[in-house]
Structure formats: structure tokens, C-alpha cells
């Protein structure tokens, strides 16, 4: 997805879900993420840990890197991030460092999440920047995609949703 | 630093500190990290968030990516990681995903750390892989380097040590 491509703001959840489906088609964990600013799409990405041999190549980390490159800045002040699954501690940390304004996520991840589950990173006194958090977009689609994927692999990284 | 360069195992802490000093000389937060396997140096890196316009470009994330690329694998099973400062939540998460065997860190980071400070990520029931943790290598040198750097910038990301 090219940078600064404009789109209807209300298509953002679907674009994140499309990135998750594309990740599944590549044999990756089906998670997709999008960064927008003032209704414009800045970057979109899905998981690529296997393809890239990179355990940090989660959708959120990739989309933050892409958005920073597109905007030529280290911090994404005023930008919002949609991701189909509740971020893990690594990604929740990256979202905080990037100064994301609003975080929208799809399915909750009771086992691996770090926002409304687990360590609840943004509720900690040591967290310097916490985005506004909006859970539950396209929750059923996002969770079903993950369940189908991991059912085939007999692995269970997501418990709830 | 090239991959698979052999070195005396006990030089690893000094190499991490040299990477931290090199980061400071580039105007980056002075933190350095090294990945070794069976006494061989696999990768070494310092922070490059400013240079790369990438808030995820902490020393630990960079050195994990470099080591995975050098070894051609997504997980660094049997590898150890030295870093001059206690990892933040993002990096502690990346270290867990990478399946690092032993984590050695220099100075504690009471404000930003997530290993022996803050959310103590590896003590959480939701943590799938926790490395063995050894704090305190070259602690005084690592902490003094950070203090000097942030004193100049009137910023204080590290409180203790």
C-alpha cells in the first residue's frame, strides 16, 4: 500500500482486515494493521515474521516503521493505528514510543495481549505515552480469522474473543 | 560488526559498551547490545532511532534482527544477549519472541525497564518464554554513559543505577 494514499476513513477497519487475510494467505499469523492521519491512509501492513525471519516483524511494528519512513519522522504524533488483534507487550511498547494518538484493535488477546489484558501497559505509572484505546472493531471477523488459522496449526495464541 | 566473528566470550560486555559509546557519538541514546552463541559473536548494535527515524530501532531490536538475518532463522534458540541498559517492554517482548536463552543487562532502568522494574514481563503468567536474567555487568560504566548523555539533554529516562 503506498503512503499518503487517501481513502474513506471508515474503510480503515476493512483495510486492516484485508491485511490480516493477506498475511494468512502468506502463511503468517493473520494480523493486519493500518496507520492513518486525518482520514488519510499512511501505511498498511500484515505480519511477516516467517517471511522476513524476524520475530519483531509484527503488523504493528512494520506499519509504524513504514509510516515513520513515509512521513520522515520518528514520532507519529496525531496518527491513529488500527490493528485486528490486541497488541502484545512488544507492539504496545512500540505504539507508545511512536506517540500514536488513538489505538483501535479488533479482537482481545487474553493470553498474549498487553493493553486490556496481561500487563495492561498503558495503565502503568511507568508508561510515558498512552494512546486512547478503542477495542472491538470487526471483532468477530478478526477473531474468526485467527481461530481458523491456529486451528489448522494446533497452536493457540488467542484464547478469548 | 560482521556475523559469526569469533571473539573471547569475556569481551562481550565491553563490546556492548563500545556499541553504546558509538551510539552516543552519533547523538543517539547510548545503549549497546550484542548477541552471542557458544562464545561466538553473532551481531552487535547500538540505538539508531534518530538516524533511522524509527522508534523501534532500539539496540536490542536491531541486534535481534541482525542476528536472525545472520543465522537465517526467526528464533535465536541457544543465543545470549548482552545489553547495557535494562530492556523496555518493547525490547523485553522482542527478546522473549526471539527465544533468547540468557539476558545480561548493565544498568537497571527503574523508570523505563520491564525486566526487574516496571511490569516485570518475564514474571507474568502470560509470558511464553522467559530468558535467564543476569543484571549488573559493567553497571557503573553503562549508567554513567547514560547519565552524561541525558544530563546534556535535560531529559531523564533512567532514574536508578
Automatic annotation (TrEMBL), chains A, B:
Relay the cofactor remark from the entry: Binds 1 zinc ion per subunit.
Q: Which residues form a coiled coil?
A: none
Look up the EC number in the record and give it: 3.5.4.33
Q: Which PROSITE patterns match?
A: CYT_DCMP_DEAMINASES_1
Tell me the ranges covered by the MafB19-like deaminase domain, including all copies. 16-116
Entry cofactors: Zn(2+)
Provide the function of this protein: Catalyzes the deamination of adenosine to inosine at the wobble position 34 of tRNA(Arg2).
Protein name per Swiss-Prot or TrEMBL: tRNA-specific adenosine deaminase
Q: Which organism is it from?
A: Chenggangzhangella methanolivorans
